[in-house]
Structure formats: C-alpha cells, structure tokens
Amino acid sequence: MRQGSALEAFVLQYSETSSSALRWPPLARLFAYGERLGTWARTKGPLYLTGYELVRFAFKEGWACLFGGLLLCLIVATKLWYPTHAALARYDVLFLAAAAIQIALLAARLETLEEAKVILVFHLIGTLMELHKTAVGAWLYPEASFFHIGGVPLFTGFMYASVGSYLARVWRLFDFRFTHHPSLRSVSILSAAIYLNFLTNQYLPDIRWPLLAVTALLFARTEIFFRVWREHRTMPLLLGFGLVALFIWFAENIGTATGTWLYPRQIAHWSAVPASKLTSWLLLMIVSYTLVALINGVQTMDEVEELADSVPSSGL
User: Fold this and answer.
1) Do residues 149 and 176 make contact, with C-beta atoms less than 8 angstroms apart?
2) Cα(215)–Cα(90) distance, rounded to whole angstroms?
3) Is the pLDDT of residue 307 over 60?
4) Which residues lie closer than 8 Å to 148 by C-beta, 6 or more apart?
5) CA–CA gap between residue 150 and residue 266 (Å, rounded)
6) 176 burial class (0-12, 13-18, 19+ CB within 10 angstroms)?
C-alpha cells in the first residue's frame, strides 16, 4: 500500500468523520482525546504506537459488538436475577429488551439504516432456520414465552441479528478493503448452498466439508485490510472468518450454560458445545458476510488510492 499524505487525509476525511461516534457528544469527545493520544504515542516511538493501536482496536471491536454484547449480558443477567415465576416470561423480557435496544440505537443514530437493513434480513433468516431446527429436534428452548412462533421464542432472531450487526458495524469502523476477493456472484452461490445444507442436512447427506473446501479455495488468496488508526493493516480473510466463528462459539457456550437454549445432549447435564460446531459457525459466517458484502460492496485497496489521488492537495 502506498503511504502518503493524500491517502492518509482521504481515509481520515471519508471514514472517521462518517463514524457514528461523532454524532454522540460523549463519544465524540472520547474520539478527540484518542486522536491526541495517538499523536502523542506516535512521537514516542513504535512501542507506544503499537500499544495505542491495540487499545484502539479493542475499543472499536467492543463498539462493533455493542448490540450482541448487550444481548449476551441480558441473557446472563435474566438467568441470574430475573424471578422464575414473574408474570412476564424471561424470553419475552429478552425479546422486548432487544427490540428496545435496536430502536434506541437507531433513534440515537448510533446505528445506520443500512446496518438496520442487514439486521432485519438476519432476523428473518435466523428465525426461519430456528423454526426448522427446533422442529427436527436439533436444539430446544426449555422455557415458556408469549412472543413465539411454534417452539421458537422471537428473541432468537435477534441473536442472529447480532452477528449481522457486528459485521455491518465492524466493516464501517475498520474501513474494510480487500485484495484478490472472489466475485460476489460466486460467494452468493456458495452462501445459498450453505444455507440450503443447513435446512436439509437432517434428510440429505451433510456436505459441510465440501462447502468448507470450496470456501477455502474461493478465499485462499483474499487479504482483508482494516484500519485501526491512520494506516491499514492486513490479514488473511479466512483467518478473520475463523476468529469470528470462535467468538460466536464462546457466546454459544454461555447461552447454553444459562439454559437459554439446549442441545439434546445437554438436557440431563450441561456440557460444553463440541468444538466441531465451529464448522457450522464458520459456514454461517460466510452467509452473514455475503449479505453484508452485497449491501456494502467490496472495495479494493487500489480504489482507495485512486480516490485519495482525487483529494485536492490544497485541502490537506
């Protein structure tokens, strides 16, 4: 990647200034303080700058996880402290609270309409898969609820939506760019096959391993560039998929440990979700990623540099 004042000015002007953080005064002040701290760290040398970027990376990741993190906290809190025989069932509290969080994020403009569209699509797709999987006994929800369809409480759609929320937010916050990205058409076909396999693997042969092989072939050369502060860093996109799948697996273990949903082997006695489930979450990540990519588009590093060249030098 070419390093230069034009590119640096471009990413600052068109990415940071569009951040929802600047629309909320407390976060805007924190952002301004972070900029001053980063400038100071840069003058102190590479070690200080690395430490600053690690802290900034953690903050951005936490901000991207806002919806999912709040929902996970609610799952744990209602398990620990919500009265068992309350008039309003625990699942209904989770549904109403998740809806309220979603509305609050939009009202405060801490979430964009584009991100809300992704979340709605995820909610619908997730609910459909939940209806199918609970019907065939893949897992179950042991508690009662008023807001439900069949055996599926409606808050579950928000669990899938939290994945979509994270991807949409992290894409913007880290200013994603790519090299050697496969066509969206081929990725969409792969995602359709993955979702169809999720719905049919109880009746037809499970082809997850061939689907994983196709995924590896499609994304073998793809690099993702993400901007923590002033410059883009890079990593293999497949590694990024794997890391997100791993954290979803951690969250799934928390969800089942609280009894919010259970697999058949966990009904008599809880045990950790098998690591083999990571393959399912990795494939789900491909479906999730495809939906966000279709909405956001896939920009390459070359496109960023071309746009940077168009920034007038007098404006830098």
Assistant:
1) no
2) 38
3) no
4) 91, 154
5) 21
6) buried
pLDDT higher than threshold 80 for residue 5: no
Q: SS3 string of 251-299?
A: HHHHHHHCCCCECHHHCCCCCCCCCCHHHHHHHHHHHHHHHHHHHHCCC
Does residue 45 lie within any of the structural domains?
A: no
Mean pLDDT, all residues of the chain: 86
pLDDT tens figures, 90-122: 999 999 999 999 898 888 877 777 778 878 888
Burial label, 282 (beta-carbon count in 10 A; 0-12, 13-18, 19+): buried
DSSP state of 17: G
The letter for the amino acid at 60 is K
Domains held by the chain: number: 1
Burial 131-166 (b: 16+ CB within 10 A, else e): ebbbeeeebebeeebeebeeebbbbbbbbbbbbbbb
Diameter of the chain by CA atoms? Answer: 70
Using 50, 70 and 90 to split pLDDT, how confident is the model at 141? very high
Which one, of 59, 73, 128, 82, lies nearest residue 101 by Cα? 73
Closest CA to 162 of 219, 89, 223, 247: 247
Q: Is residue 5 part of a domain?
A: no
For residue 35, tell me if it sits in a domain.
no
∠ CA 202-190-183, nearest 5°, is: 175
The reply to whether 270 falls in a domain is yes
With a CB cutoff of 8 Å and minimum separation 6, the contacts of 193 are 207, 211
CA torsion sign for 112, 225, 163, 69 is negative
Question: What residues make up the domain containing 193?
Answer: 59-315
